[in-house]
């Protein structure tokens, strides 16, 4: 089936958490944007029109493989020119995975201001639930534009978010008498809530769409049965809480059967706890939503946090996250490490924490600065890009490509830097997590500890602070694909790399890239007139 959608990106003053944000951005007038819904195998067409007055835009369909549709991946400077104000770009791709995710602007720091929305692709299912709820986008939220907040990051002071919102609903404590942007109670949205009917089983589709925060999700007195990681179905496991890094998703089944002690009012907190050391938020309240058994109740819960809720900032243990469809990775890395490459994440030594200095992150020794007017896909043979590339050639004939990212260099500027974990996202592929650790990576020894037999598979995984992350993927998708830290501040200060995969096949496999998309004329003209 062919499904067609129209998204209009624009400016709007919004107040998701009760505090006006004049520099908000919206999709079809709202934050989050509308649900994009399709079935497995569908052909999807999305026409994206940009009405943001001061910037370009692009939309990325997070986690969708874009098999042979690199030009629909939505990364400006890599797979397309930015969509200039007043113009439209049409994305065409196939829904080759099923589950849920989110779409978001991939134009610089635009998504943190509101250009994000949910996506569901229905697939085969055991229907082991009675009712599926629409995705819940969990996000940290900034009252000022992300571009303004980013200035702090550049100066070596990572910004602190103001609150947490669930599907664009939050509650920031402020005083409307003294703060003009603070809305009085009467003008605020009611707290995010879902009505449960006792005995029913609900499917919750969780997404972390944050700028810089990882969360631990839990519901007081309820057990989560986790059935998928990102777009990958897994053997179900039960837990009291689940850690969700930026960009990650989980499907969880929750049985409406609260454990003792029952709450008289029949209300239970949904908690989104900032995981330890993975983000900073001014208001630390973690009771961000309510499960109600009485649809008429408006009372706030008095329930308490579960005793086994784990707030560590790390991916769930690998032995939980076992994909239903197994991938077995060849063990050649044990003796021949690593086929593809070891890359180091670092902060450059340039003036960090000095008054007019800036933070520059990089993978390899070159931060990725993109040329918006000359996206890689349109200039495949430009050798000046080479330092920012990793190249997988068409005759790479091993089953998997290994990508080892280490972050041992984190303090090399000799000043005190807060070590931080990085949620690493790869475009164009699901990857398996061969291993993660917070020790020093050893080329000879570490691969012996890898998990080769049906390891966790997903599209975002944590690079532990001061440690290493080893992933592997099948190089079966010609294109230029970004791999980057999904902390928006880090991606924007260069913590990204392009993977040039099967270069000679890219042009051949992208028949849909029409002549009008082959130049950046529209963008260049707009840019010359406005910036
Ligand atoms: Cu969620 Cu590069 O993307």
Automatic annotation (TrEMBL):
<feature type="domain" description="Plastocyanin-like">
    <location>
        <begin position="135"/>
        <end position="295"/>
    </location>
</feature>
<protein>
    <recommendedName>
        <fullName>Laccase</fullName>
    </recommendedName>
</protein>
<feature type="domain" description="Plastocyanin-like">
    <location>
        <begin position="381"/>
        <end position="503"/>
    </location>
</feature>
<keyword id="KW-0560">Oxidoreductase</keyword>
<keyword id="KW-0186">Copper</keyword>
<dbReference type="GO" id="GO:0005507">
    <property type="term" value="F:copper ion binding"/>
</dbReference>
<dbReference type="GO" id="GO:0016491">
    <property type="term" value="F:oxidoreductase activity"/>
</dbReference>
<feature type="domain" description="Plastocyanin-like">
    <location>
        <begin position="10"/>
        <end position="124"/>
    </location>
</feature>
<keyword id="KW-0479">Metal-binding</keyword>
<comment type="similarity">
    <text>Belongs to the multicopper oxidase family.</text>
</comment>
């Amino acid at each position: 089936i062919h499904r067609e959608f129209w998204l209009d990106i624009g400016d709007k003053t919004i107040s998701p958490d009760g505090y006006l944000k004049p520099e908000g951005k919206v999709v079809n007038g709202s934050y989050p944007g509308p649900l994009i819904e399709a079935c497995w195998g569908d052909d999807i067409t999305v026409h994206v029109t940009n009405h943001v007055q001061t910037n370009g835009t692009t939309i990325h369909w997070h986690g969708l493989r874009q098999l042979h549709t690199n030009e629909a991946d939505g990364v400006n400077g890599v797979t397309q020119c930015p969509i200039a104000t007043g113009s439209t770009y049409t994305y065409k791709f196939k829904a080759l995975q099923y589950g849920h995710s989110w779409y978001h602007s991939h134009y610089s720091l635009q998504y943190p201001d509101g250009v994000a929305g949910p996506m569901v692709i229905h697939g085969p299912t055991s229907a082991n639930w009675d009712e599926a709820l629409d995705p819940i986008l969990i996000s940290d939220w900034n009252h000022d534009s992300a571009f303004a907040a980013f200035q702090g990051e550049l100066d070596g002071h990572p910004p602190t978010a103001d609150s947490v919102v669930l599907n664009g609903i939050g509650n920031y404590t402020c005083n409307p008498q003294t703060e003009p942007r603070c809305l009085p109670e009467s003008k605020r949205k009611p707290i995010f809530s879902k009505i449960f009917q006792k005995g029913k089983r609900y499917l919750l589709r969780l997404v972390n769409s944050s700028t810089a925060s990882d969360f631990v999700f839990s519901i007081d007195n309820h057990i989560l049965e986790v059935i998928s990681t990102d777009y990958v179905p897994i053997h179900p496991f039960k837990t009291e809480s689940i850690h969700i890094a930026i960009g990650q998703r989980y499907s969880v089944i929750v049985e409406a059967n609260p454990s003792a002690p029952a709450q008289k009012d029949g209300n239970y907190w949904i908690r989104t706890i900032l995981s330890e050391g993975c983000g900073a938020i001014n208001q630390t309240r973690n009771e961000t939503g309510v499960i109600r058994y009485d649809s008429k109740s408006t009372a706030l819960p008095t329930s308490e946090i579960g005793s086994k809720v784990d707030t560590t900032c790390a991916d769930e243990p690998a032995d939980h996250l076992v994909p239903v469809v197994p991938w077995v990775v060849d063990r050649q890395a044990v003796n021949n490490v690593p086929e593809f490459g070891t890359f180091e994440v670092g902060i450059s030594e340039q003036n960090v924490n000095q008054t007019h200095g800036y933070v520059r992150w990089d993978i390899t020794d070159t931060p990725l600065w993109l040329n918006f007017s000359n996206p890689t896909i349109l200039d495949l043979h430009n050798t000046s890009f080479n330092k920012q590339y990793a190249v997988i050639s068409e005759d790479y004939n091993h089953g998997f490509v290994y990508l080892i990212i280490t972050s041992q260099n984190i303090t090399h500027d000799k000043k005190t830097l807060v070590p931080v974990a990085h949620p690493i996202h790869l475009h164009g592929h699901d990857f398996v997590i061969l291993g993660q650790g917070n020790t020093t990576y050893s080329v000879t020894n570490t691969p012996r500890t890898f998990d080769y037999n049906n390891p966790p598979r997903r599209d975002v995984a944590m690079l532990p602070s001061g440690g290493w992350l080893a992933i592997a993927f099948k190089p079966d998708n010609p294109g230029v694909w970004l791999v980057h830290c999904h902390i928006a501040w880090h991606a924007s200060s260069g913590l990204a790399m392009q993977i040039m995969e099967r270069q000679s096949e890219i042009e051949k496999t992208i028949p849909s890239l029409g002549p009008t998309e082959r130049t950046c004329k529209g963008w260049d003209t707009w840019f010359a007139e406005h910036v």
